[in-house]
Amino acid sequence: MKTSTAFGVDIGGSGIKGAVVDLEKGDLAAERVKYLTPVPSTPKAVAEVVARLVEEAGWTGELGATFPAVIRHGVAQTAANVDKSWIGTDVDKVFSDITHCAVTVLNDADAAGIAEARFGAAKGVGGVVILLTFGTGIGSALLVDGRLVPNTELGHLELDGYDAEKRASSAAKDNEGLSYKQWAKRVQRYLRHVEGLFSPDLFVVGGGVSKHAEKWVPLLDISTPVKPAQLLNNAGIVGAAMAAHEKFTG
User: Fold this and answer.
1) CA-based torsion, 121, 143, 129, 66: positive or negative
2) Strand 226-228, strand 158-159: pairing
3) Mode of pairing for the β-strands spanning 162-163 and 138-144
4) 45, 146, 185, 198: which could join 38 in a potential S-S bond, CB 3.0 to 4.6 Å?
């Protein structure tokens, strides 16, 4: 059974979700369980929630986890929407020690990107694919022929004197009371900037706002095709599980 399944955990600033993933279908093999992210979200507190998810599922195999940070060789280099004490922490080791599983940790947008490339909107697309998640900020995943280039952080590109995500995230839309039409103009400005830097073959747009893609994606006037993400809330879990399985089985 374990050859075709792995456990995925998606860690965010407000919630921590986990489920067993069917790696052949790219879908959840069991119901997703979610707990609130503890406050403060220290390494010990978050690790205890991850261990609870794993224990309740009776899981002992490969475990992949997303994390809202730049992750280099398992170590958090930043901490977005989680306690700053994570910076410099070996996240792989923290989760491995408490769960006794073979663990790999990766950036949350990177996990969504590899899931969409394998099973979602970017399946079968060669060349350069950029996934952008529009939420509190803008997360990014850059893939070349399906292979991930990790930790791109394209939401922090400077655009018109601002951090791009300060203007074009879905949080900016909500905070400023923008209509979809007004917000789409900002997203278009941002996508054209990214387009000019990378000349991608496809943009995949995710995050909660992708559920309403019909209200804003058709308004975008750019050269690169744009597709809404397909895996939505499960993308992080699926991508994390995939990453763990591929790391430990080759």
Assistant:
1) positive
2) unpaired
3) unpaired
4) 45
